[in-house]
Structures are given as C-alpha cells and as structure tokens.
Amino acid sequence: MKTCIVLSVLLFSHLCSGKFPPWFKFGAATSSYQIEGAWNISDKTPSIWDTFCHIKYDVKCSNANGDVAANSYYQWEEDLDAAADLGLDYYRFSISWTRILPTGYPNKISKDGVRYYNELINGLLARGIVPMVTMYHWELPQNLQDLGGWTNSLIGTWFADYAKVLFTLFGDRVKTWLTINEPLITCAAAYGKNTGFAPGISDPNYGAFLCAKNTLLAHAHAWRIYDVMFKPKYRGKVSIVNQIFWMEGQSEKERKLGELTFSLNVSTLQKVIYTYPVFSKNGGWPAEIEEIISTNSKNEGFSFSRLPPFTTEEINFIKGIFKTLLRARGSDRKCRRSHQGFISK
Ligand SMILES: *[C@@H]1O[C@H](CO)[C@@H](O)[C@H](O)[C@H]1NC(C)=O
Ligand SMILES: *[C@@H]1O[C@H](CO)[C@@H](O)[C@H](O)[C@H]1NC(C)=O
C-alpha cells in the first residue's frame, strides 16, 4: 500500500511537471497482417486473413486487404527509424506463421522468413528498442484452417511445434513472448454471428467454445516448452494476452443482468473463460459458466455440453502457468438480454 501511494505521488508530481518519470517505459505495437504486406512473397503461403480479405473483400474487409498494407516487409528500416525517433523503449510486433513455416509445420522453415525477422529484431536492438513478440495475432495458416483450425484438438501440437521453432530461432534476443493475442477475438469474434474476423465461420454456440479450449491448451504447450527447454538459458517471459472488459447493464431495466454478469466476475481477471483456467486456483472452466452452458445444451437437445469439458490432466496442464499477465486495453461494455440466437449463452 505504502509503495503504491509513493508511486502515485511520484507519478503525479512528474505529470504535473509535464514530464514522465525516467522509469516509465513507452512502447508501440503492430501485427504482421496489418503492416507487413508482401503476402505472396518468397515461399510464404496464405493465412486465413489473406483468404478472408480476398474472398470477402467488399463486405468484411472494408474494401481493403493486407496485400501491401504498410509495406513494412520492405520498409522496416524506415519504420524502425520512426520508432527510434519517437523514443520508444519497446516495440511489440507479431510473427506471421506462414512466413516462417510455409506448410504450417516445422518440416519446412523459410529462409526468407527467418532473414526478415532476424533483421527486424537486430534492427530494434541496434536502436536500443526492446522487442516483444506476439506469436499468434490471428493469422492461422490456411491449410491448418482447412483441417479445422482452432476447433481441431491437434492444434495444441501444431502450435507447440511452431512455438519451439520461434524460441529456437529468436529466443537468444527476444525475452518477452506473447503466445496468443486476445483469444476472445480468435474464438468468440471469429466464430461469432456475422463475423467480421477470419476465418469468418459463424458457429458461436459450439465452434467458439471448441476454439477456446484448444487455444488454452496451445498456450499451455508453448508456455511449458519454454519453461523447460528455453527459460533456463534465456530467462525470458511467456504470457497469453487477454482482453478484459468491464460489464454493466445497458439501461436501468438491464441492471440486474449487469449485476449477474458482474457477479460472475466476467469483468475481473478471475472468471473470464480465457483467463480462469490459467490464473485461478482451481483451474478448468469457471463452475458457474460450465453449469449454465451444460444446462442450456441439455435443454437444446445436445447429448454433450457445448462448452467442451477439460480432463483433470488438461486442467493441471493449463493451471498455474504464469508469472506475468499481459492485458490488452480494458474498456467497458454494456450488457442487455440477447436477441434470439444472437449470442452464445
Ligand atoms: C502477388 O500478389 C499481387 C497482388 O497483391 C499480384 O499482383 C502478384 O501477381 C502476385 N505475385 C505472385 C508471384 O503470385
Ligand atoms: C466476485 O468477486 C467479488 C469480489 O472479489 C466476490 O466477493 C464475489 O464472491 C465474486 N462472485 C462470484 C460469483 O464468484
């Protein structure tokens, strides 16, 4: 408490003087599809975003695609100079899975992909900027998507293999690894209703939950591989990145619903389905959520719960694997009763 007050007073006095304290670090972040372009260069194969924006160009991608984007594949030096001019301490970027592993698997490692990310990482370090790497910012190899992507339970193994390649290639210089960026988007949004996110498969009531389970297992695979094989040598950190929202009722009429959402602590770190299995004491899904979905599934005539259960082994595999939690911006959300079939519940 005392430290906290001292820190706030320090920060406050610095802000009043118009200066940030010297220990305050600045960073900026990008993701590969959003900046790299060069979508079909060298031996890179299409990711789900390449496919999505080529097929659903008009409606879903606002008449745009990432074919060229900010052209950072070619202009990374200018981009890094701009980052240095800004005085950034950190730069977070993501690696495109298919630029490094054109088949999606480690049977083929792209020389050009390795060259590109080596130059980027070395360029950052040369400018005194610390690299933070996101391993998955929503760009699954299209061929893995064709096999079911995040709804295929084998993806834990595929992601583990990819992670091992990245740690091996870049772990000597990259000390902060972010496994999966915002599973809420990878799963709930990408498998949502009228989804505007690749792969654009609308299956909010089941697909999104299969994805959630497999995403957490994939994160756990990567975390444990690093912990055993790389951490002793490189002393880095690995985290999932979760997006956390504050929830409240949309109107006075929905106040009770807001309170229920809040009481499930969806708004806190504790009970979000993408967070609870990793960071809670018990592990597994939050019991209240598991019960609600199981009951709903039964009433809907399913023979199983649409929220796929974890085995005890899986619960223990995922639980407690953290030293750090990277949080994406938190904002607030209003909740109301869902329209029929609008959102999974
Ligand atoms: C790569 O994509 C561009 C469109 O962005 C296209 O003009 C070009 O022909 C493609 N190159 C190859 C080798 O397919
Ligand atoms: C939610 O969090 C609050 C504060 O930590 C706690 O008192 C309450 O019991 C929690 N609710 C549930 C349903 O876990």
Short description:
This protein is an alpha/beta fold and 345 residues long.
Please describe what this structure looks like.
This protein is an alpha/beta fold. It has a single domain (27-246, 310-334), classed as Alpha-Beta Barrel (TIM Barrel). 45% of the residues lie in helices and 13% in strands. The chain has helices at 2-16, 32-35, 48-55, 57-60, 72-86, 97-100, 111-126, 142-146, 155-170, 183-189, 207-234, 255-263, 276-279, 287-299, 312-318, and strands spanning 27-29, 90-94, 130-136, 176-181, 237-249, 326-335. Helix 5 (72-86) runs parallel beside helix 7 (111-126) and helix 9 packs parallel to helix 11. The longest helix has 28 residues, at 207-234. Residues 1-10, 265-271 and 341-345 have low confidence and may be disordered. The structure holds 2-acetamido-2-deoxy-beta-D-glucopyranose (2 copies). The site of one 2-acetamido-2-deoxy-beta-D-glucopyranose has 3 residues, from loops.
Features:
alpha/beta, TIM Barrel, six-stranded parallel sheet, 15 helices, 13% strand, disordered N terminus, disordered C terminus, binds 2-acetamido-2-deoxy-beta-D-glucopyranose
